[in-house]
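Re: [ENG-882] Designed sequences occasionally contain unexpected residues at chain ends

Forwarding the minimal case from QA. Structure tokens:
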């Protein structure tokens, strides 16, 4: 299984990193490590998560974030890594 983290999701991860690193030095790195492990788990669990707006939504284990992805054959495309504390309507506009 190959995982592709698309540009929008990369930007989401960077924004999350910056937010948490401002809260406490080193917390941004922990955020990225944690989300990377969650995304990597899609190699095994891709496709089992509920569908939201035609995307599978996996909730992160340690942070209030959701990973929106599509599973196509042997590929997983991560479209967004969304902060669950934000308005979901803004996320829906962001997803193609």
């Amino acid at each position: 299984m190959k995982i592709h983290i698309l540009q929008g999701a990369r930007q989401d991860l960077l924004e999350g990193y910056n937010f948490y690193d401002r809260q406490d030095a080193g917390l941004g790195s922990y955020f990225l490590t944690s989300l990377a492990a969650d995304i990597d788990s899609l190699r095994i669990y891709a496709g089992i998560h509920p569908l939201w707006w035609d995307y599978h939504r996996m909730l992160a284990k340690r942070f209030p974030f959701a990973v929106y992805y599509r599973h196509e054959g042997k590929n997983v495309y991560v479209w967004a890594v969304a902060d669950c504390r934000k308005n979901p309507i803004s996320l829906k506009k962001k997803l193609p």
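QA comment: On inspection the terminal residues look reasonable. The chain has a mean pLDDT of 94. Proposing we downgrade this to a documentation issue.
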